[in-house]
Each structure stands twice: as structure tokens, then as C-alpha cells.
Known about the structure:
This protein is mainly α. Helices cover 69% and strands 1% of the residues.
Amino acid sequence: MNLIMGLFNHLFTYPIFNALMFLYHLFGDFGLSIIVLTVAISLALLPLTLRQLKSARATFALRSELAEIRRQHARDLGAQRHATQELYKQHGITPRSPFLPLLVQLPIFIGLYLALNIVLHQAKLADLNNIIYPFLPRLASAPNLDLNWFTGLNSAWHISLGRPDPSHILPFLAGAMTFVQMRLSQPHAIAEIRDAMFQVTQIMQFILPLIMVGISIFIAWQLAAGLALYRVASLLFNMIPQYFVTGWGSLFTVPRLAGVPNSADIKPNTPGQQAQSSRQHLSSKASVRGKRASARRRRKNPKKNR
Length: 306
């Protein structure tokens, strides 16, 4: 176990720690250093993220063909899998797990957590300098982990990046960014489908981000605020390529329940339609009056009518 932990530290924890210390030497702000490191990591993962987004969009465009394959080979999973692979091959799609970018970032997230622990628990400056690579500048004093960006709004909103956020600003920001990013990644076109199965899928796609929001807030609430800051910055940066590939996705879409129209589906009458409806109403009233007058005349002149 110690061998595995030592290997992980040399591959992830110490490089991340040294990158943070170098950025801190440049900027003198630990929060800004975390954000710059986050942007650098996101840029390194950008090709993988873009391929993942484009693959997901292309797969959704083939939803009708995939549904037909499932219908034709409902009882033969092997044939269904083969037909699906052939369809993907025809359109040049390489299916990837939607959790692949998250799995790639997981060691980085753990490495950042351990790097923050090193800064927090290694009280002696000499111990910190021993971990810094020889070609990087040494620390003259212990890093300042205080984040004072929000104290202008409220003097009590003082955050130490090495401990859980006492103001809870960063956990709630992480939750909000999680919801927005997940809704951006979900296709808007699914909201236009009236099929009952897709309506269930749409509702589930609305509930799943809410569950992930709760998980994100819970984790950010417990761990060091520096990790929550990394999560917020990572989600915010990844929304940029997400928007250019999928647009707003389902961000502004409310799940449609069967038999209950959305307010967007109820269109107000145009002035022409209102005038036509008014004319029809007046014409109907005039017709009723005419029938009543004719009935009164027949009652007054029974002999003539015979």
C-alpha cells in the first residue's frame, strides 16, 4: 500500500504541489494559483472533452436509427450490439463513456487534495522546500491560504482554502455550476419529442442533475475550500466548449408531463384571429335573434302560416 501511495505522490501529488508553489511564487495569491492551474489542466484535457461532446451529439442525432435497431433485434442482444456498432462505424462515431473525463480528472482532484494537506500540515518551511523541485524557486515564507475575495461584500466571508468553507459560498457555487453544466450537456431536442418513453427520460435528465447538485454541495461542504474552488473553476471553464458544441442544451427546458401542456405551447391569439373570433361571435348572436323573431311572427299569424 505504501508503494502505491508513494507512486501516486510522485505521479500526481508532488507535481501538483510544485505547480501550485510556482504559481504562488508568480502571483502571490493561492486562490488565483488554483484557478490558473485549473485552466491549465482543462486545456490539457480539452481535446478529450471536445471528442466526448461531439461523440455524444452525433449519437443523439442517430436516436431514431438506434430505436429501430432495438425494435428489430429486441430478442437478440448480440445482433443488436453488432448492428449498433455497424451504425456507429458508418457515421464515424467512436462511443466513449460519458464518465471518461471525470475519471481522468479524479487522480488530479485527489492529488490536489493531498497537495493542500501538505501545505496545511507541513508546518516547517524547510519541509515544504524539501518537496519543491530543485529547478524551482524556494519559499521564503509559508504560503498564505486565505481567500479574501468576498470580504468586500461581507467581512465575515473570510475563507481559508486549506479548510472547509465556513461561509458555504463555494459549496453552493459548486452545486449551481454542476446543475448548469449537466443541463448544458443534455440535448434540447429531446424536449420536443412527445413519445412517452422520451418524456420519462426527460424527467430523469432533470432529476439526475439535482441529485448531482446535492452530492457536489455535500462533498464541497466537507472538504477543503481549495477543492471547491478547483471544482467551480473547472466546471466554469468546461462550459465554454460545451456551449459551442451543444448550445444551451436543456438548461431552460422544463420537463413536460403527459397531458399537461407547457406555457410555451399555449400561444396567444393574433389580432387577426381575435377579430375573426369576434365576427363569428356577433354573427352567431345575430342568427339567434333572427330565429327568435321569426318564431314570434309565426305565433302571431297562425292562419297565414297555414
